[in-house]
Amino acid sequence: MGEFDLIARYFTRPGRTEGGVVTHGIGDDCAVLTPTPGWQWLVSADMLVEGRHFLSTVAPRRLGHKALAVNLSDLAACGATPRAFFLSLAMPSANEDFLAGFSAGLFELADAHGIVLAGGDTTAGPLNINITVMGEAPPGTALLRSGARAGEDVWVSGTLGDARLALEVFRGSLSLPGEAFEAVRLAMELPQPRVALGQALRGIATAAIDVSDGLAGDLGHLLKRSNVGAELHLADLPRSSVLGAMPEAVQQLCLLTGGDDYELVFTAPADARARVLDAGRSTGTPVYRIGRIEEAAGLRVRDGHGRLLDQTLQSFDHFQS
After folding, report:
1. Left, alpha or beta for 172 (phi > 0: left; psi -120 to 50: alpha)?
2. Helix axes of 60-77 and 178-189: crossing angle, nearest 10 degrees
3. Residue 102 in contact with residue 61, Cβ under 8 Å?
4. Is 310 annotated as a binding residue?
5. Which of 15, 165, 294, 305 counts the highest number of beta carbons within 10 A?
6. Cα 50 to chain centroid, rounded
7. Does the annotation place 212 within a ligand binding site?
8. pLDDT (tens digit, 0 to 9) for every residue of the chain, 321 residues total?
9. Running DSSP on this structure, what letter comes out for residue 272?
10. What sign has the CA pseudo-torsion 285, 289, 294, 296?
């Protein structure tokens, strides 16, 4: 099967590749996009490399889902409405079983969020998936990392740490019974981007970022951009019953430095607590208040006894981890 047959069979969807902002999609040298009048574009790109971002054992359908999910999570962190995406895919061969599963998972999530595949590229090579997403938001409403202020609350959505726990099981450093392992593996391989929550937080949250490389590192990026610090309490960090049954050191590792959570961590004024909770309820997304923004730079985490934890654990870094 050649490149253009591959595109036509697995990535072209007659009658569903155009509409909304996508005036002309797959089939030309460029896509033609027409933004909503008066709105601003929000654009992000993420690359997934086999052996670095996903295991070779992951099911193609789940890989298709995750490839788009991690990009939608970036739009969610900025409060954007998803509109279009572009896929560049390198793979060793045109394996039809892989392509069928991958494209099915990709489009299932795309349809759930109303985002359209508008173009991209395919080539032979080591398995490498690059997606660029485009979203929109009304002017001045995009959530950025730079708006947090001292005295505000720190919130997080969902639960943290399960994906890292699954990775440790895959690495052989921990073991879990079958049902528990499948639960955390699901978190690792099928993350759910918090797109609806991000949109609901426009005008409420002052800063936001998605937790892709670990809470400590990602919140640290937000704090640096906002020129503030924060104090968190380990006991307040939301976790699943599976992770909650693990030794304290494992919980700390997974909660603070585990990547692949794709939850939102964000800040909001203390007088907006009811509005934040309403945003969570209206989107079916649990949200938890986990700390407070402070003037002093840096991130401080206290254990259940009020003692400051030794902050030697590092979040994921693509060139050091």
Report:
1. left
2. 60
3. yes
4. no
5. 165
6. 18
7. yes
8. 777 778 888 788 765 555 578 888 787 888 899 889 999 999 999 988 886 767 677 899 999 999 999 999 999 999 999 999 999 999 998 889 999 999 999 999 999 999 999 999 998 898 899 999 999 999 999 999 999 999 999 999 999 999 999 999 999 999 999 999 999 999 999 999 999 999 999 999 999 999 999 999 999 999 999 999 999 999 999 999 999 999 999 999 999 998 899 999 999 999 999 999 999 999 999 999 999 999 999 999 998 878 888 766 555 554 455
9. G
10. negative
- CA–CA separation, 79 vs 138, rounded Å? 10
**What is the gyration radius of the CA atoms in the chain, in angstroms?**
20
In 3D space, the residue among 157, 160, 153 whose CA is nearest the CA of residue 291 turns out to be 153
> Cα–Cα distance between 217 and 220 in angstroms, integer?
5
Check if the beta carbon of residue 262 is closer than 8 Å to that of residue 211: yes
Question: 234 and 115 in contact (C-beta within 8 Å)?
Answer: no
| 145 belongs to an annotated ligand binding site | yes
For the chain, domains (ranges, CATH) are 3-137 (3.30.1330.10), 153-302 (3.90.650.10)
261 among annotated binding-site residues: no
Q: Does the annotation flag 218 for ligand binding? A: no
What is the C-alpha separation between 142 and 218, in angstroms, rounded?
18
- In single-letter form, the type of residue at position 99 comes to L
Is 210 annotated as ligand-binding? yes
Buried b (16+ CB within 10 A) or exposed e, 170-193: eeeebebeeebbebbbebbbbbbb
Q: Is 44 annotated as a binding residue?
A: yes
Q: Which tokens go with 169?
A: 């099981």
Residue positions counted in the chain:
321
- 221 labeled part of a ligand binding site: no
Residue 313 burial class via C-beta count within 10 angstroms: exposed 0-12, middle 13-18, buried 19 and up: middle
For residue 213, say whether it is annotated as part of any ligand binding site. Answer: yes
Please give the structure tokens belonging to residue 243: 């992770």
